[in-house]
Specification:
This protein is an alpha+beta fold and 420 residues long. The chain has 13 helices and 15 strands. 30% of the residues lie in helices and 20% in strands. The strands form four sheets. A five-stranded mixed β-sheet has the order 1-2-3-4-5. Strands 6, 7, 8, 9 and 10 form a five-stranded antiparallel β-sheet that branches.
């Protein structure tokens, strides 16, 4: 609709691809060059793949492009820089947002490469559109708080044909105006810019914790990767599928550890050269490969990462019991959360430490164990605890007559002094 009406209004030529042409990157690139296309709208994954093709085949850049709009998925700052490398400096780059129920575009943002990092905002409402952000109780949220995006205005649809029940669940009346409940989670900053976080139905419930997959994906995109998807696998694992070729998994894990709580750090990272896409150019989650859940780090007995001290041996035995992997050897430098551990198991691990090494949370809290979740570091912490608890205490037995007086006895024996 945007391309058709836009071309008609401006007297421009609309170039249409042949059926399935949007799946042929070489064909798209040749059209952009040969037809001197000046405006294009595409989803971020398609644009990223197009940039990859240009780098591989050394195709000419798109010098005729005057405006390029990305939409339909999260736009990372890294992608905008890649776009800038294939167009002229005069080309305007936009991030557009809008579901079909609001006639596609309802917010837009012109991207400034000189400002900010990470995720690009979806901008502000276009003229004749209004946006509200509500929490789960239908109340408007404050600045910076996430909630569901509701859209009102001239572009909001009348309803789904023949599906009145579904229509009733997504259209609401607020102050005599119809708003569409998008199901998208967003937040607004102090400048009035809206940031897309993810879908409400993409929320993950893991061991009693409600997790926003989009929040983890945003964190990973800040690490300057091209694309990623986070999913729940089984009952115990978060899996991050990351697109790239030269990606260090441990660096990604450290990046997540510095920004996310432990229960949100993926158990496994699956690095792919290219995330599978559907016909719309979006990531096809159904085609993602199953992760290898047997990624527990095993060692030969003579490797340097095997337990070296008696304390490390004891900690190793407790880890094996908690993780139910008795008989396997875990590297002393492997993180607890990288081998299938999660928050509930970590609490169980901490309780094992308390009972085995005779300390309570006042002596040593769980926090330092979380910050350094390896066998080697835990052994050092527990060694410190042993030194503290090993100090002799001045205990001696007393006859019942030798104990301190009760308060009543003390008061009675000193009553005269107290009265005076």
């Amino acid at each position: 609709m945007l391309e058709i009406l836009g071309a008609l209004m401006l007297g421009a030529t609309l170039v249409m691809l042949h059926p399935k042409g949007n799946m042929d990157l070489m064909y798209i690139a040749s059209i952009l060059i040969d037809k001197q296309i000046s405006f294009m709208f595409a989803v971020p994954t398609s644009i990223n793949s197009l940039c990859d093709l240009i780098d591989e085949v050394q195709l000419p850049h798109f010098y005729a492009m005057r405006s390029l709009c990305a939409g339909g998925d999260i736009v990372a700052a890294k992608l905008t820089k890649r776009i800038r490398s294939i167009v002229t400096s005069n080309c305007l780059i936009w991030n557009g947002y809008g579901p079909a129920e609001t006639t596609i575009f309802c917010t837009c943002h012109r991207i400034d490469l000189m400002k900010g990092k990470g995720i690009v905002p979806i901008g502000q409402p276009l003229p004749n559109y209004r946006c509200l952000i509500h929490d789960e109780f239908g109340q408007q949220v404050i600045i910076g708080q996430q909630g569901e995006l509701l859209i009102g205005g001239v572009g909001v649809f009348a309803g789904y044909l023949g599906r009145d029940e579904l229509t009733a669940t997504v259209l609401v009346e607020i102050e005599d105006e119809t708003y569409y409940k998008t199901g998208d989670l967003v937040r607004m900053d102090s400048n009035g810019l809206i940031y897309y976080i993810g879908r409400k139905d993409d929320q993950i419930k893991l061991h009693g914790q409600r997790i926003e997959a989009g929040e983890i994906e945003h964190c990973l995109l800040d690490a300057h990767i091209a694309a990623c998807v986070v999913m729940k696998w089984g009952e115990d694992h978060l899996v991050a599928y990351v697109q790239g070729s030269c990606i260090n998994e441990e660096d990604l894990r450290k990046h997540c550890r510095s920004r996310l709580p432990p229960f949100m750090i993926p158990s496994m990272f699956v690095v792919l050269d290219q995330l599978p896409l559907n016909t719309n150019g979006k990531v096809d989650r159904q085609c993602l490969p199953a992760p290898n859940c047997s990624t527990l780090d095993t060692l030969k007995s003579n490797t340097v990462d095997a337990p070296q001290t008696e304390m490390e041996e004891n900690v190793h035995a407790i880890w094996c019991e908690v993780l139910q992997c008795t008989g396997k050897k875990i590297s002393t430098n492997t993180g607890f959360f990288t081998i299938g551990g999660h928050s509930l198991l970590f609490i169980k691990l901490y309780h094992h430490y308390q009972s085995s090494f005779n300390f309570d949370n006042h002596t040593f809290s769980i926090a330092p164990f979380l910050q350094q979740a390896t066998i080697a570091e835990h052994a050092k912490l527990l060694q410190k605890i042993n030194l503290v608890t090993a100090k002799p205490k001045a205990w001696q037995s007393l006859h019942i007559s030798e104990g301190n007086n009760s308060f009543t006895e003390y008061f009675q024996s000193n009553a005269k002094v107290l009265i005076l």
